[in-house]
Amino acid sequence: MTNVPTDLKIAQAAHKLPISEVAAGLGIPENDLIPYGRDKAKIDYSFLESLDGKPNGKLILVTAISPTPAGEGKTTTTVGLGDGLCKLGKKAVICLREPSLGPCFGMKGGAAGGGYAQVVPMTDINLHFTGDFHAIGAAHNLLSAVIDNHIHWENQLDIDQRRITWRRVVDMNDRSLRDITCGLGGPGNGVPRQSGYDITVASEIMAIFCLATHLEDLTQRIGNIVIGYTRKLQPVTVKQLKVEGAVTALLRDAFQPNLVQTLEHNPALMHGGPFANIAHGCNSVVATRAALKLGDYVVTEAGFGADLGAEKFFNIKCRKAGLHPDVAVLVATTKALKMQAGIAKENLREENAGAVQAGCKNLGRHIRNLGQYGVPVIVAINEFQSDTAAEHAVIKEFCASFDVECIVATHWAHGGEGALVLAQCVVDMIEHRQSQFRTLYSDRLSLWDKTRRIARTMYGAEDIIADKKIRAQFARYQQEGYGHFPICMAKTQYSFSTDPLLLGAPTGHDVPIREIRLATGAEFLVVICGEIMTMPGLPRKPSSENIGVDENKKIVGLF
After folding, report:
1. Residue 356 in contact with residue 387, Cβ under 8 Å?
2. Which of 62, 73, 318, 438 is the most exposed place for a label (fewest CB within 10 A)?
3. Is 162 a catalytic residue?
4. Is residue 441 part of a domain?
5. Cα torsion for 163, 166, 168, 169, to the nearest 10°?
C-alpha cells in the first residue's frame, strides 16, 4: 500500500519552477506576466487580446457523482488528467476555480487537488491567492454602500428601500449575517432597513466576473444589474446610480487570469470561483477561452455533482460563451457509492461490493443525465487505497451496461503516471467520437418550464412547486423581457432532491421553490430550492480549529 503524506506536506515539499518558465511553455513572454511572487502570476490583457483568431483546442469537462463526506476528488482528477495528458506528450492546460475561504475554514476544505495531483502553491491558492475574491467582495460592497448613500441623500431615483434586492457579501461562512438590519443609530447613519449577507461566491459580481468575455463586457453587465425597484415598481439599475465604472476599476486587475502550476510543472489557469450549489459553479470564461487558444487539450471542472455543476456548465457557461465541450469525465469513488447506499462513513474501508452495486443507482442517473447533452462520457474511478478489485469490477460492469468506458485512475498516489490510461482514453474518445453537444432547453422556453425541465430531467422530480407569490414573480420576469434567460438552480448538492438525506437516485419527489432572484448582469435567473442557504454556516467543529502557523512560520493544519 502506498504511503502518501498529507496534501500540505506534499505541497510544501514540492519543487516549483519559476512561473515565467511555466508561462514560456505556453508561449507567454515574461513581459506579459504580472508576477505575484515567484510561483504565481496574472496574464496581461495585451497578451490575452493577441490570442484572438487562433484555433481552439479540445474542451474536456470533469464532473462527478453526487458529493458525500467521503469525497469524490473532482479537482484531483482534473489535475491528474491534465498531468496525464502532458505525460502523453499533449499540450494540455488545466482550468480551475479559485477556492473560497468559507469552506477552507469550514467543512469541505480547499480546491487545489490532493495527493500527488495538486496545483501549487497550495497554501497561497487556498487562502488569499492574488486577492481576486477580496476585489470581488469590495466591488460588490461598494455598490451596496452607494445604494444606501443614494437613499440617504434625497433618493432622487425614488428607490423603495423595502424592495432593494442587492445584499452585501463576505467570503466567510457566517450564519449570523444572513439577515441583518442596517442604518440604525439615527439620521446620520442612513435609513434603517432590513438586508442581509451572502457569501462572496454567490455574488452576482462573481457570476458576471466569470461570464464576461472582456473588460468592456464586464462594465456593461455591471451597469445592467437591477439592485431593486422604485415605489412605482420600476427596476433601478447600477447604470442609473453611475457606479459601474468604479466597480469595474476595483475588478480591473483581478479580471486577468491567474497562472499557477501542478506538482509536475504543467500549467493551470485558476480564475473565479462561484459555488455550484448556490451559483453557476464554473471558472471564468476569460480563462477557459485563453486556455483553448494556448493548449491542444483543456481540462476544466464544474462544482459538485453533474446535476448541478455540469448542468450549469452546459446550460449557462457553454450557452453564453459559445463553448463546445468534447468529452465529459464523470468521477466516482467506491466510498462515495457506498455512502449513496447508506453505509456509514466509519465503515467505508471494508470491502462491500453489494453496497457499491446499490450505490451505482446514483452513478447511473448521472450517466443518463450527461447523455442528454450529446457529449461522450467516460467514468473515472478515483482510486482509494482501501479499494478492492471486486468493487472496481462492479462499477465497470455497471458502466458497461450503459456502453460507457470505465477507467481506474491512481493519480492521487502516482500523479500523472496514474492517469495515463484515463488520458489515453480521453484522447481516443475525442479522436473517434464526435461530440453532438446540445443544451437541455432552448432560450424560447418559458422561465417556469425551464425550471421544471431541469427538475424533471436532471433530478428525477415529479414537478416543481411554488406559492402564488413565487409564481407571480416568474410571470412578471417573463413579461418584463427576461424569458430568454437560463436558470441557475440553488439546491442542496447532496441529493437529487431538496432533502440532503435522500440519497441514491430518488424519483417522484417535488422540488419546492422558496425564492427567485433576477441576475440581469449575469443574465440568468437564480431559483432557490428547499432549505439551501446563500450564506453557509460553520460546522460544529470547523477546520479553522486545526489551522495555524508553526515556529518556522509555515502554515500547518491546512488539509
Report:
1. no
2. 438
3. no
4. no
5. 140
Active site includes 474? Answer: no
186 and 239 in a single domain? The answer is yes
Are residues 464 and 426 part of one domain? no
Residue 169 — pLDDT band, cuts 50, 70, 90?
very high
C-alpha cell at 244: 459601474
Q: State whether 245 and 341 are in the same domain.
A: no
Q: Give the three-class secondary structure for 255.
A: coil
102: in domain? yes
Question: How is residue 234 written as a grid cell?
Answer: 420600476
Is 456 catalytic? The answer is: no
Q: Is residue 442 part of a domain?
A: no
Distance CA 63, CA 313 (A): 10
Are residue 227 and residue 274 in the same domain, yes or no? no
554 is catalytic: no
Note if 345 is an active site residue.
no
Of 11, 14, 276, 291, the active-site residue reads 276
Catalytic residue among 133, 209, 384, 559: 384
The domain boundary, picked from 231, 250, 269, lies at 250
What CATH number is associated with residue 469?
Answer: 3.10.410.10
Q: What total number of domains does the chain contain?
A: 3
- Determine the Cα–Cα distance for residues 30 and 276; give it in Å rounded to an integer: 34
| 361 shares a domain with 282 | yes
Given the residues 133, 304, 313, 398, select the one marked as catalytic. 304
This prediction has a pTM of: 0.95
Q: Which one of 198, 222, 250 terminates a domain?
A: 250
Residue matched to cell numbers 495538486 = 118
Choose, from 74, 90, 338, 517, the residue flagged as catalytic. Answer: 74
Q: Give the pLDDT confidence of 306-365 residue by residue, as tens digits.
A: 999 999 999 999 999 999 999 999 999 999 999 999 999 899 999 999 999 999 999 999
The boundaries of the domain holding residue 206 are 132-250
Beta strands per DSSP E along 180-324: 180-182, 193-195, 197-199, 226-230, 235-237, 258-262, 267-270, 297-301
Our answer to whether residue 58 is catalytic in this structure is no
User: Looking at the structure, do residues 331 and 220 belong to the same domain, yes or no?
Assistant: no
Claim to verify: residue 271 and residue 241 sit in the same structural domain: no
Would you call 153 a catalytic residue per the annotation? no
What are the residue ranges of helices labelled H in 212-333? 215-224, 238-241, 244-251, 285-294, 311-312, 319-321
Catalytic residue check, 130: no
Pair 145, 103 in one domain? no
Parallel, antiparallel or unpaired: strands 267-270 and 258-262: antiparallel
Kindly indicate the confidence band of residue 2, based on its pLDDT and cuts at 50, 70 and 90.
Answer: low
Query: Does 544 map to a domain?
Result: no
For residue 433, the Cα-to-chain-centroid distance in whole angstroms is: 27
| DSSP-assigned states of every residue in 40-65 | -EEEPHHHHHHTTTPPP-EEEEEEES
CB atoms closer than 10 angstroms to residue 244 = 22
